[in-house]
User: Fold this.
Amino acid sequence: DSVNVRLVGGHSRCAGRVEVLHRGQWRTVCDDGWDLADAAVVCRELDCGEPVDALSDAHFGPGSGPIWMNLVMCTGSESTLKNCGSSGLGKSTCDHSRDAGVICSEVRLVGGSRCSGRLEILDDQSWVSVCDAAFDQQDAEVVCRELDCGEPVDDLGDAQFGPGSGPIWMNLVMCTGSESTLKKCGFIPQTYLDMCLDKSAQVICSVLSEVRLVGGSRCSGRLEILDDQSWVSVCDAAFDQQDAEVVCRELDCGAPVQVLGEDAFGKGDAQMWTQEIQCRGNESQIHLCPTSLSHENNCSHENDVRLVCAGLSLFKIN
Assistant:
C-alpha cells in the first residue's frame, strides 16, 4: 500500500500532528520513541526543509481514528516514513493524548530555545546566519510564524545569543510580514559585508500560550489560564514546583525562581478557576497536565498564584 504523510493543526503544511494515509484512512502516530531522526524523514518526505522540533503529547491537538505506528525507529536517512522500522503497524497501545507532531522549517533559532535565539537560514544544505542590518519587525513576524511560535517580542532588551561561527547570508531580508516562510520574502543583495560582522539577527517569539503572567513582566506576574476563551485566576492552594516548571517552560521563560505572596503583582479581578493543576513537571504546556475539581472553596484574589521565572537570562551568553 502507498502511504502518504501530512501535518495537521499547525501554522502551515510543514508543521502539525503527523498523520499517515493507510488503506484510505488518515491515522496518527504514537510519540513513543519519537525523535528528530523520525521528524527528519517526515520533513524530507514533505519537502519542508529540516526538522526544528519533534513534538509529543498531542502538541497540535489530539487526532481521531486509529493510531498507525508505535515506537517509530527511523535512522533519519529514509526517504519516506513507511520505510522506517516500528514495533508494528496498527498495534499501538497509545491514545490520542500522545499523538506525535513535527515542525519543519528552513529557518531556526540558535543559542536560546526553539522560539528564541540567533536566526539562521538553510542555504544550499548549510545553516548560515542572517544579517541584522535591515532585519525588522515584519521579518521577525514571518520567522515566528514559520516556527509556530506566536508573535515576535518588540524589545529584545540585552538578549545576546552569540555572534555565530558560520558564513553570513548574502541577502538582506525584505518581508511584508504576511509571508508564510522567510524564503518567500523579498531580498536585496548585500553590498557591504562589513555591516554584518558579529551582527546576526536575533528573534524572540512570544509562544502562543494558554497561560500568562500579569502585573509584572512576560516572565513574572500573577498567573492566569485561558479557560473557554476567558482568562481566569489560579488559586495557590495546591500549586507546586512541578506546576511552576510547566508554566515557565510554556512561556519560554526558563526555570521557576520563586512563588511569591499576596503583596506581589497586585490583586486580580478575573474569575477564580475551579480546577486544581496536577502537573508531573515534564509537560510542555499547562493544558496537557491532569486537573481535578478543587476542594478549596474559599480562594480569593489574595490566593492568586504569583510566579517569577528565570527569564531569558537563563539562556544569555556572555
Q: What stands out?
A: Residues 312-318 have pLDDT under 50 and may be disordered.
